[in-house]
Amino acid sequence: MSYKDIRKCNKKQKRSSHMLFRETGIKTCDRSRILMICNAGLVSGIQREEVINLFLPFGKLEDVCMLPGKSYCFVAFRNEEDAQEAYSVLHGKTILNATEVKLILAFVESVPKTDHDFKSSSWPNGLILLKDFITEVEEDLLIRCVNWDTGAGNSGRALKHRRVRHYGYEFRYDNNNVDKDDPLPEDLPKECSFFEERLFQRSGIRFKPDQLTVNEYHPGQGIPPHIDTHSAFEGIIASLSLGSLVVMEFKHTDGRHASVPLPRRSLVLMTGESRYAWTHGITPRKMDVVVLEEDNKFENGCLSVSHRGTRTSFTFRRILRGECCCNFPLFCDSFKKRESSSSSFKIESETANDNIDNRVAAKLESMHVHSVYEEIASHFSETRHKAWPNISNFVNDLPPGSILLDVGCGNGKYFGVNKNIFEIGCDQSIGLASVANKRGFQVFTSNCLHIPLKPGIADACICIAVIHHLSTKERRLQALTQIAEVLRPGGQALVYVWAKEQERDKVKSSYLRQMGKRNSGKSDEETSHKHCVSELDLSLPVHKNRTDFQHGDLFVPWKLKHDTDGKTSKEVPTFYRYYHVFEEGELETLSREILDIRILKSYYDQGNWCLLMEKSKE
C-alpha cells in the first residue's frame, strides 16, 4: 500500500477501535487470533457465507460473528498465525463483493457475546437423521427415475423456485392439502420399493408411504418455512436428500431455531413435535455454512462452506384418513375447524358491505366495553390497587430516564413503581383516566387502536388486560401494531391478556381461588344463559364469575356494590363486559404477524397469557 493508503487505513482502524470499545467494551490489540472487519457487516449487505468463503483459505475458523444492525463483524481463527496471515494478505487490499470497498481489518481481544446460529444445536424433539441411508448407485437410480414431463395428465410442474413431481396423490398448493378421494394414476416408483424395509432395519420404525413429492432445487433455490398440513398426512414425514448437501432451518414459535445439515443420501424423519409444531424450510442461497467434526459443537468444531449443487428431495408421506388428533392444537387445522364449528360467536351481515364486520365489532365494544367502564369506573378503580410482581419487575428494570407508555392504564396502578423513569398513560375510559390524573399521573384518553403519539417515542410499553376486550382478530392485531409503532428500535413491550385456561399443572389461578372469598359458593349469574344484544342481532354466553371459561368469546358480568349505608332496596345493576379469552399460543401467533417484532419471552401468569416482545433495532 502507498503511504497515503496506509494513513487512511490507520485512521479508519482508530475510528473503529473507539466505536467498538464504546459499544461493546472490547479493545483492539496488536496480535490475536480474532479479526474485526471494521467496514463490513450485516447492514452492509454482507452474508456470513461470503465472509467464511473469503477467510477459509487461511486456516480453520471457529466463529464468524455477525451483529444485527452493525456495519462490522468478527472472524475467529483457531490459530493466531492463520489470523496474522489473513491480515497481511487482505487488510487494505481486498475488495469484498457486497461492499465494493477495500477491507479494513483489526485484531481484537474477544468476540462479543451473542446468540449464535451455530450454537443452536438443540434439534426439535422427534427429529431423526439417518446418514448414508442409500448407496450412490441407488441415488443415481432414484434421480433418473423421475419423469419431469409437465404435459397434460402428468403431475409434474415447475414452481417459481423449484420443480416438483407428485406420485400417489397430488399435493395442492392452492389449499395446502390433498384430495384424498382422487388418487393419481401413477403409484410410487418401483425404484422406491426398498424404502419401507430399509427404514425399519435402520430405525425400527414401520412406515408405509402412499404419497411421494419430488422436489428439484438448483443452487440459490429454496422453500419457505412451513408445517405440513396436519389433516393431510399422518405423523411421519420422511425426506431423502439426493445430489447435494443442504442446511434445513427449523423454527418454533417460541423463538427456538435449529440449522440442521442434511448430508447427501441422508434421510431425515420428522415425527412428534418436529412434525407438528416446528416449521421447516430451506433458505434460498448458493452455499451453506456447516460445522465440521462429528461432535457438531461449535466451540470444538470449525466452520466451513458447502457450495450447493443440484439437490433432489424425495419426501415420503402417508395420507391421513379422517381428522388429525395431535397434541399440538395451535398448529392444527383439524382442531381449528372443530373449534370454528362449535364457536358461538359470529358477527355476520346480510349486506354486501365489506366493512360491516368492523363496524359491528366497534359497536359491540362501544356498548359492552367503553360504556360499561364509564359506568363502573369508580367501583372498578377501588378493586385495582395491587401491582402484579412480574409487571412491576419489568417496570423496575427499565434504565433511569426511560419513557414508559401504559396503554389502557386504568387508574395508573403501575405508575410510580419506578421513580427514575418518565411515565405516560392512555385509556379509553374518561372516568378511569380522571382517577389517574387526580393521582398526579400524566394520562390522556385514547383508544388502543389509534395511539396519537409520535412513532418511536417510547422506550418501553405495557398493555395489561386490554387487548382481550377487542372482538376480532384484525382489531387485536391492530392494537399490537400500534404498540409496536410507538416503541423505539430495541424498545420492549409487555402484554397481558386473560387466558381461557385458568388452571395449569393442577394449580388454580388467583381468579378461581377467589370464588370462595367473594361469592361464598354462590354466583350472581347462572351459567346456562346468554345475553342478547338486539341492536347487533347477536347473543353471547354469560360467564359465571370465578369459574373456568367455557367459551372463547363471552360476556363477563360486573355488579355494582350496594350503597354505602347498605339500606337501599334498589336493584343493583349488572353490566356485561365483552371478553375474548386467549388460548395457549394465540397471542404469540398474532404478534408474529408484525414484521418488526420478535418475541423475547412468553409465559403464563395467574390466569393470563403474557408476552414480552422487542422491536427490531435499526
Automatic annotation (TrEMBL):
Residues 208-320 form the Fe2OG dioxygenase domain. Residues 33-108 form the RRM domain. It catalyses: 5-(carboxymethyl)uridine(34) in tRNA + S-adenosyl-L-methionine = 5-(2-methoxy-2-oxoethyl)uridine(34) in tRNA + S-adenosyl-L-homocysteine. Its cofactor is Fe(2+). Its EC number is 2.1.1.229. One of its GO terms (cellular component) is nucleus. It is found in: Cytoplasm; Nucleus. The keyword Iron applies. GO terms for molecular function: metal ion binding; S-adenosylmethionine-dependent methyltransferase activity; tRNA (5-carboxymethyluridine(34)-5-O)-methyltransferase activity; tRNA binding. CDD domains: AdoMet_MTases, RRM_ALKBH8. GO terms for biological process: tRNA methylation; tRNA wobble uridine modification. InterPro entries: AlkB-like, AlkB-like_sf, AlkB_tRNA_MeTrf/Diox, ALKBH8_RRM, Methyltransf_11, Nucleotide-bd_a/b_plait_sf, Oxoglu/Fe-dep_dioxygenase_dom, RBD_domain_sf. Keywords: Cytoplasm, Iron, Metal-binding, Methyltransferase, Multifunctional enzyme, Nucleus, RNA-binding, S-adenosyl-L-methionine, Transferase, Zinc. SUPFAM superfamilies: Clavaminate synthase-like, RNA-binding domain, RBD, S-adenosyl-L-methionine-dependent methyltransferases. Catalyzes the methylation of 5-carboxymethyl uridine to 5-methylcarboxymethyl uridine at the wobble position of the anticodon loop in tRNA via its methyltransferase domain. Catalyzes the last step in the formation of 5-methylcarboxymethyl uridine at the wobble position of the anticodon loop in target tRNA. Has a preference for tRNA(Arg) and tRNA(Glu), and does not bind tRNA(Lys). Belongs to the alkB family. This is tRNA (carboxymethyluridine(34)-5-O)-methyltransferase. The lineage of its organism: Eukaryota, Metazoa, Ecdysozoa, Arthropoda, Hexapoda.
